[in-house]
Amino acid sequence: MHTTATLTEQLARTIRIIPDFPKPGISFKDITPVFFDPHLVRACAAALAAPFRSRGIHKVIGIESRGFLLGPLVAQELSCGFVLIRKKGKLPGQTHEVSYDLEYGSATIEAHHDALQPGDRVLIHDDLLATGGTAQAAARLCTQNGAVVSGFLFLVELESLAGRQRLEPIGCPVLSLISYRD
Ligand code: AMP
Fold this sequence. Notes:
Blueprint: H1 5-14, E1 16-19, E2 27-30, H2 38-49, E3 59-63, H3 67-77, E4 81-87, E5 95-101, E6 106-112, E7 121-129, H4 133-144, E8 148-158, H5 163-167, E9 174-180
Parallel strand pairs: 3-4, 3-7, 7-8, 8-9
Antiparallel strand pairs: 1-2, 4-6, 5-6
Helix pairs in contact: 2-3
Bound molecules: adenosine monophosphate (AMP).
């Protein structure tokens, strides 16, 4: 799924690329300047929500921490709820969790135990799709609680890390507003 050239061009002009951050060899895509411009933020939220307007979505799921920036706005666009997925130990209530492998070691993410109900149709959102490991783990957390993943929404996609190939077998649309080769 791809979006209009104009919005993509605006994002290309706005997202700041910081070489060798946080370590040598990483080309960091800094989305913070997008939030300097309220019109651009609104256009991004609307573009991410657009394909799902009449799909009966119950919740947008935001992944810590940059998934908390646009996620609530997409949820507002769809008049649905917003759920936070956080790294282990940050949520105060009872939680459900899943662990997943990283390049070195593993990570655990969790959601409040009452955040997802069986049959909920959910969209999973993060700022950026790299390997797709985090979004895949978020999808597992949702399905383990009986929710149905109806889409993945990202502002940025890094094509070289093939996250899309990891998520598409889940069987729902993977939407990003701008792609980079590296
Ligand atoms: P992944 O699980 O590999 O898809 O990683 C996705 C997460 O890593 C996102 O939450 C991003 O914020 C972060 N991330 C990975 N690579 C980059 C990058 N080059 N620039 C900015 N954020 C990145």
